Amino acid sequence: MDLSLQVNNVTVRYGGFTALDNIRLEVQQHTTLGLVGESGSGKSTLARVIAGLIIPDQGQLLLDAEPLTGKRTREQRKKIQMIFQNPDASLNPKHSIRQILAEALLFHKIVGRAEVEKRSRQLLERVSLEGKALDKYPHEFSGGQRQRIAIARALSVEPSLLIADEPTSALDVSVQLSVLELLGTLKSELNLTMLFISHDLGVIHAVSDKVAVMRQGKLVEVSPKDRFFSRPEAAYSRELLSAVPQMPTMKTSGGLHEPRT
């Protein structure tokens, strides 16, 4: 299977603190890599490096074998989109949903002005929202609905890699499941490659093909999902798993895996 993303010897420093220490990572096309680790391990920093929001001090990234430079082109920015834990981070509260989607569609030249309305409605339908949502503002929606709108915005530019940084951790359990099902369906239908960050091992089991474990800015293990949950290689991975007495059952559909109890 071809590689979609390669992270080669990436290091990020903040003064005397090393946030990422010589990270090497590969993500194959049309798969989901689950990224886990305790708070402060460097997960979100790595996500922001891949998304182009942080320029590393050293190292190189390649997407579909093309180097990603410090200052990325419009096409490179379009190919990698990020869904944040808090959807408000990507939704301008002063803009209607119509404006939010139109801005992305027009800036990246996905469609012409005459087609923006049709495409925006299609995007909302993909995330199970009605077209009348276009004329509303982010504060008029629930947290789960706002996250769906954030997903629609990320998909609007037709990315090849989708980064999901704790996208369900701020949502109620029932809403979490629906958002995970949605992401699974979209991944399957659109042939997306995903980097999924979560502290919840039940979620990671449900969504991932491989699991990468970070600790104190270092990558300590990358394993196929089944091997990670049955025979983890790193002592720290075993510590993470031992902290979860029983893997929670998360019944999902739409291309997500179903974890065992």
Automatic annotation (TrEMBL):
Short name of any one Pfam family annotated for the protein: ABC_tran
Gene Ontology molecular functions: ATP binding; ATP hydrolysis activity
Any one GO biological process: transmembrane transport
SMART domains assigned: AAA (SM00382)
Transmembrane segments: none
Annotated coiled-coil segments of the chain: none
Domain (ABC transporter): residue spans on this chain: 5-241
Entry keywords, A to Z: ATP-binding, Nucleotide-binding, Transport
InterPro entries in the record: AAA+_ATPase (IPR003593), ABC_transp_ATP-bind (IPR050319), ABC_transporter-like_ATP-bd (IPR003439), ABC_transporter-like_CS (IPR017871), P-loop_NTPase (IPR027417)
UniProt similarity note: Belongs to the ABC transporter superfamily.
Protein name: ABC transporter
UniProt source species: Paenibacillus typhae
